[in-house]
Write a structure and sequence with these properties.
Blueprint lengths: L1 H20 L9 H7 L2 H15 E2 L2 E2 L6 H16 L2 H19 L2
Antiparallel strand pairs: 1-2
Helix pairs in contact: 4-5
Length: 105
């Protein structure tokens, strides 16, 4: 049963992507729908990182002892100033590691 569910989900994901990416299909989206779908990526990413940064074991953790919060703040500033994804990722991960070693040691 689990294997059937996995194949069904894979088929659903493939077909939903194929309909929008295949240029020979006559499916066209309106500009308003394109604009609406442009918000889906940031919304999904925010729903992934926000609980990691702002919570600890199910409770809100907004304090100066939160290394996730400091590294996220640094990542936002670096992304805004440099527009370089690789540099932002590497420096914010190094900052998180340093803060985690210093604050949790």
């Amino acid at each position: 049963m689990i294997l059937i569910s996995i194949f069904a989900m894979a088929a659903l994901v493939f077909l939903s992507r194929y309909l929008f990416l295949e240029p020979r299909l006559p499916l066209k989206l309106s500009p308003a729908l394109h604009r609406l779908l442009s918000y889906s990526g940031p919304a999904v990413l925010t729903s992934i990182w926000a609980p990691i940064v702002f919570t600890d074991q199910g409770t809100l953790w907004v304090s100066h002892h939160n290394p996730y919060l400091w590294a996220a703040l640094l990542a936002v500033i670096l992304a805004w100033k440099t527009s370089n994804v690789l540099l932002t990722t590497l420096i914010s991960m190094a900052m998180f590691l340093l803060l985690n070693l210093v604050l949790l040691s």
